[in-house]
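tool_call: predict_structure(chain=1)
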Amino acid sequence: MLFNNTKVINARILFKKESGGSIEIFCLEPRNHVQSYHTAMEQVQGATWKCFVGNAAKWKNEILKKEIEIEGKNITLFAELLQKEGDAYIIKFSWQPPEIHFAAIIENAGLVPLPPYIKRKTELEDKSRYQTIFARNQGSVAAPTASLHFTTSIVSAFPRKKIKSSFVTLHVGAGTFKPVKSNTLETHEMHAEYLDVDRQTIEELLAAPGDIAVAGTTSLRTLETLYWLGVKAADDLHTSELELHQWEVYEAPLVNTKISARQSLQSLLQWMVLHNKNNLFTQTQLLIAPGYQFRLATILITNFHQPQSTLLLLVAAAVGPVWKDLYQYALDHNFRFLSYGDANLIFIDTKINNDD
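tool_result:
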């Protein structure tokens, strides 16, 4: 069983303008190319991030300031708006004294980024309740909520059930909240998200004797991305970068590939050895929708998702048209939807024809 061990950061930072107005900065991802999320979180002196900004129209040229306290030290955090980029903004953070790591800055300055459909203020309990027991690597702005159903007592029973656990990291971006508003999927842009998978995990997947179950859509997208990156590696072991864009898996040459899951993972390991990498750190923009053929995942545990979401598209791809029956059953029996809701177990039909 594969879990996402990402950790939610306190991505919402509230500032007050000198005039008294409020500005909310929602940190999405590091702006500059990084070798790992760890290095981005360990930055000192300053950090530049892509962010959503609440009340951006009221923020002109003023450098915002916020006083915080870290381990008894008074810290002054500054935020400067550099430019607009799509539906987000590029924000430069700096702080005094400068030797504090950005991880400590955002942990103490920010709030838990609860999903926008939770219409209440963040509570102290959310800081632990909105983290999975597997949370290790800081970087997400939303929890991989399917894993919230797993407790230490459940996981401790895995050996008796002959279930082995492996972990990947996919830092969930705000794109997970972005509804599909376009008339066709063709014009919907999937936000790229960072993934980080070590060589040992890929070796464990390669050695898996049976089904590979995934906890949550983020783990599933990471697992399926690994297959396609392995296909790319098989085509060119000397390529310096591996990443996956939104529509590649539906287009030639990838859609026509005959490479097995085993061959793909073996090629990915060969690529990592050749390039002296213990971790695969890259981005994926994979959009799984009806018509997608699953290559590695066979079982999915996931929550119930909202209409017009790419997550609902993924479920439809996994089970075909019967997804409507599944959701109707949940509605008829008052199941709880969304992040703090109930879960369901899906046996993925890897041979499904989603055009039926």
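agent: Residues 217-235 form the longest helix (19 residues). Proceeding to next step.
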